[in-house]
Amino acid sequence: MLSAPKLFRKDEVDGKVVVEISGKAFGKAKDVAFGLDGTVALIVLTNDNSEVQITMDRVMGVGDYARCEHPPPAIDPY
Questions:
Q1: Would you state the pLDDT for residue 2?
Q2: How distant, in Å, are the alpha carbons of 18, 36, 64, 70, 75 from that of 22?
Q3: What is the pLDDT of residue 74?
Q4: Where does the chain show beta strands of DSSP type E?
Q5: CA distances to 20, 33, 58, 73 from 76, in Å
Q6: 66 burial class (0-12, 13-18, 19+ CB within 10 angstroms)?
Q7: What does R_g of the chain's alpha carbons equal in angstroms?
Q8: How many CB atoms lie within 10 A of CB 40?
Q9: 72 CB contacts (<8 Å, ≥6 apart)?
Q10: What single DSSP character describes residue 10?
């Protein structure tokens, strides 16, 4: 039997330090947002006080820190 995926509540990620895959911290989780199309994103207050949205498909894990792929991978236009 397959187990259900781990779900996280907003208060479990709120305030966590967000780190890139390389291990560099770039901000703190501020909120979670969703779109009517089902997209869910982590709202991050970066170290330079700007907000970025990290879609959950780029979040690699949540524990003591939230680890994610940031910035998004470059898209080859060809």
A1: 66
A2: 11, 32, 16, 9, 20
A3: 55
A4: 17-20, 25-34, 40-46, 51-55, 59-62, 66-68
A5: 21, 28, 18, 9
A6: buried
A7: 13
A8: 13
A9: 58
A10: H
Q: How far apart are CA 20 and CA 62, in angstroms?
A: 12
Q: What are the mean pLDDT values of the chain's consecutive 10-residue runs (78 residues total)?
A: 77 94 93 94 94 93 91 56
Q: In what order do the strands lie in the sheet with 51-55?
A: 51-55, 40-46, 25-34, 17-20, 66-68, 59-62
Q: What are the backbone dihedrals phi and psi of residue 24, each rounded to the nearest 5 degrees, phi first?
A: -80, 125
Q: How far apart are CA 8 and CA 12, in angstroms?
A: 6
CA distance linking residue 20 with residue 54, whole number of Å? 11
